[in-house]
Amino acid sequence: MPPPAAPTLDTAVQAMLGILSAYLPAPAGPLPAPTISVTSLTERTAGMGNYRGTEARGEFPAVELKGIRVDAVTRFQLWAQDPAQADTDVTALASQLAVDADTLWGKGFLKFTLDAVPPAEVIPSLTAWRKHADYRVLFEYAYTDAGTDSLIAQIPIDIDGEKTLVTDEMTRWDQEHAPALVVRGPFTAGTLSLLLFVPGVKPTGSVTVTRTFDGAVGLPPTHPNLADFLTAVAGPAPAQRHASVTFATFGDFVTLPIAVNDGNDFAMGDWNNDLLPDMYEPRRIPLGAGIALPRPEDRLEVAYQPPPLDNTAVMYMRAARGQ
């Protein structure tokens, strides 16, 4: 499915005029309605390639922030029964715009200055006076790029035949691959952050969380639930450095009672090829006092068995640092 078309300059201009139209006074009697229009217009860049940064979904920088900047002169056209009332109306408009300077900044008006206020002119055919107030504005129309197909969960590097894989405390599970999340110290894992897309039946394999270290002997002691596991391994002085807990199914893991929503759902890609954007749910699993991994040989692992996922789904998982 092709990504949604990016907003155009016209979209930005209409958004700008929509905000400013709220400052137009109500029509008075038989007079024409006041209007807001653009008398000059130039598009400016907002950052490199209109890129403004990223917006997080939970612990994931999942959505690109972009913008369109409009450098324009906007014209308020007001109508009155006489020139004195026309001047009064323009003064009231200017005062309200000045009072709302911070509000307008928050809505994207980076610059807003009075450019010209010519004298009122009589329109004999309407028995009315018309007065203009021109403002030069720099307006930034902000939007999010929903066309991203996926997040970068791993980067393969090959230098003279020496291969390695950079993962940054993050992994992705789907029906093609489900590599274990492996986090090494020094690091303290405060939460497991998830991005979930499960369009139907959840995968049925098990999920095992293990706190261990290089050189540990034998299988880790298994705890019956996450609470017991965290009691044993969390905090700065854990009772156990080699322990695990297993969830019978993927669903048991992602729907843990302590798991909480971590923001609004958002669209990304079309993994199941149904010609509709996939909706991802951000979730967060707190890890109590945090699982401390003070040394490079200490590690936290989260593994799906047997990989890959056996039903259509995608899960990004990232270990986020504790406080």
Walk me through what this model shows.
With 323 residues, this protein is mostly beta strands. It folds into 2 domains: 9-145; 166-321, no CATH class. Helices cover 15% and strands 45% of the residues. It is built from 5 helices and 19 strands. The strands form 4 sheets. Strands 1, 2, 3, 4, 5 and 6 form a 6-stranded antiparallel sheet that branches. Strands 9, 11, 15, 16, 17 and 19 form a 6-stranded antiparallel sheet that branches. Strand 13, helix 4 (226-233) and strand 14 form a beta-alpha-beta unit. The radius of gyration is 29 Å and the shape is elongated. The model is unreliable at 152-160 and 163-167 (pLDDT under 50).
